[in-house]
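Worked example (supplementary).
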Amino acid sequence: MALSLSSPCGYAIDEDEDMPVFESTAAEHGGLSRPRLPELSVISPGLNSHPSLTELEGGSERVKVYVRIRPLSEVEKGRGEDQGCVAVQNEEALILKAPKESQNMKTAERGIGPSIHKFSFSKIFGPETTQQQFYEFTMKKMVKDVLQGENRLLYTYGVTNSGKTYTIQGSGPEAGLLPRALVSLFRKLQGRLYAAMDVKPVMYQDVRQLNAGEVRAQEIQRTSLLQEISICCPLQSENLSCRRGGNTSTWDSGIGGLSSISNVASQFEGELPVQDSSSHFQAVKLQGRKDLFTCRFFKKKKKGFFPVKILTLCSCCFPKSTVFLLVLPDLTWIHVRSAEEAWRILRAGRQNQSFASTYLNQNSSRSHSIFSIRVLHIRPETLSSPSIPISELTVCDLAGSERCKEQRNGERMKEATNINTSLLTLGRCIAALRHNQNKTRPPQVVPFRDSKLTRVLQGYFCGRGVSCMVVNINPCASIYDETLQALKFSAIATQLVHGPSTKSRVAYILSLLSEPAANANESTVIEEEEDESDVEDGDITMLNTETLLQAIDVLKRKVHRQREENEALEAKVREQVVSEVMEVINDMQNGFRETLEAQTALLEEKYENKIANLQMHLKKFYDQELKEKEQEIENLSADLNKIKSSHQCRSPRRSQRLLAHQGRLDTELEQCRAELLARTEEVTKLKMQLVVPGPAGTYASAADRKLEEGQRNVSSARTCISCAWDLQRLGADLQSGERACCRNTGGEKLRQALTAADEKIAKQDQILVELQNNLMLVKADLRRKAETLAQVQADLCKKRGRGAAAACSTENRPPLKRPFFPSLFATRTYNGRLAEEAQVSPYTRILRSRQPSPPRSPASTPRSL
Ligand SMILES: Nc1ncnc2c1ncn2[C@@H]1O[C@H](COP(=O)(O)OP(=O)(O)OP(=O)(O)O)[C@@H](O)[C@H]1O
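After joint prediction of all chains, the assembly is encoded as:
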């Protein structure tokens, strides 16, 4: 088998060639030269520049989303589809401008949404990009990764007729990503292929060692299947009979879509087995499930057919057959020894894919196409171990999304509905994954199980591998709205971050087991583990149950320890928080106290001011009241005077009598005054005579002072007595007058004043009696003193002789009786009360008590004296 894979269909494969650097296509599309657009869509999550990888969560990488814009065909250009609605701004930014006829423009004109949208992607490839360039930038590295044990997925997404199949499979000499990847893969594996067929991958990451019988059976099955597949080709061209749900219809073989594969596969024409027309293919719908049906391969025998292979497949995935499709457990993996065999199966699978002519695409894929190839990394020393590392490359050509209503055929419409449903589920899964990346929000269930497509791809979205999306764009103006929707969907995918790798989980589990063991059993298990570097490359399924249980125990202990640490930390934090809170509370308390004191001072000041104001107002008020009362008193006095005068008018006789009596009293008083003056002069003269020098003089002066005192008392008493009697009479008269007035006026106040005056007069009487007694005593005392004085003078005369006798002749005269008048108004009193009474005479008091009686005449008052 001399097969040159260096350039199978004219394209050069240089594995060591550096990745080409593409220039921006913005200038060609006028993206940079266009004026600044007035309005931009805000729906593009990639509007801002992409964050660097280090900024992403946990250092994970974002899902790479590449955009490829296909060139317009001459026919499309002739239809006027080139309206510049898709423009590349730079290598990462794409601008969509709604054409006039589009629905988006209509809604934009109604003001509902923008007419210009900007999207950001990992890289944008313009229409001039060749298949080789696109492969080198996208798939080449993936192939390398797969050979290094990584899992990789590449899937295309876009509107129908946008170039997805062209990108994956190619057309004519322009082979797509998949044939190039296969050629590259087998070239790299050349000379290192494992020839025996004694291992077989079972579900997911498990590998089973086959015994001799199983190897033989496997070989037979493989050869048979390869033959059956190769047999299908002529059968399909002969209108393969297909029975679905009892109805037999002609199966659309879609041979026209095989041109590119056939072109590449032409390299292997000589190697194809001889076609056998004795096989037959039948598809039977599974009971109760619309999307599942069973494909049976029959080998024609002489007497009828017998089944060779039964596959249960999903209509939305790869409806007829492929050995690389791993949807349900009864599918099997076929051992591929060379690129040639891979091509055969690929071509067969391609033949069994559904194609149809739609209104947009002459050869439209009516089902998703998934191609998977697994590489078992076998080492002789680990051959017996079930944990053989496996890496997988999956290339998925999704069917194009399209408007169902525009399908003219019922069958096409059903297909379009199925396609859109599965694409919608894919979109929901991506949106849910995007949502779950935000740890602050409650996680959503990712609806992987709602579609076979998402079930197949689930592993790549859950850390099993790295996925990459290729968005194909048709720049035709007529499908602008669909293109916009596809870009919106893929814009969500640009925000996806790859989940944590399952390999990192394995490494984590192994690191757990390699921690210092708490007991002997653990250490035993660790010793039994393989070299870490060897095992870390594998998947989680390579760990046995015992190891996993041990890891769980370690994790439990770790969790327990963490909880204890957390509790201790929490207690510490609580303590710190409490102390800090207490400090804050104390500060607050001090603050409040200061504030309170300040407030109290302010309030005190405020209320003091208020009290002062109130006092001022009260004072004003009571002053006013007092004035009013005084005014009232004055009015009352005036009234009283009026009444008196009227009373006088009414009883003139009594008034006259009173006036006459008053006149008499005044006369008497004047006489008393005159007499008093005369006596005073006389007393002064006597005093001058009585000045005696020496001790006798001293005695004499003392005696004189006492005498004067007694005289003053007596005179005051007498004056008081006389005045009192006069006043008593006057008071009685006034009382009678007032009573008369009161009878006429009924003034209660006046009556009370008179009663008080009567009481005072009674008291004066009593005082008068006491004064009379005192007078008697003073008189007796004066007599004794006069006698003593005479005696002293006589003794003095005897001692001085004759000269002195002459003097003594005058001095020896018997002492004259000293008049009492000089002490008549003496201020000396016997007690405080008397002094008061002496100062304020009964007459004065009576007059005062009768206020507001008419004011006294100055001549009639004792003060005038
Ligand atoms: N980059 C390209 N260069 C040249 N021609 C292209 C390119 N991309 C697509 N085409 C052409 O556009 C047409 C439609 O492409 P293709 O069938 O791959 O679209 P599709 O997206 O797979 O459609 P569907 O989803 O209906 O299967 C084909 O004739 C193809 O040759």
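Two points are worth noting when inspecting this output. Residues 70-71, 158, 160-166, 171, 361, 363-365, 399-400, 472 surround adenosine-5'-triphosphate (CB under 6 Å). Residues 545-650 form the longest helix (106 residues).
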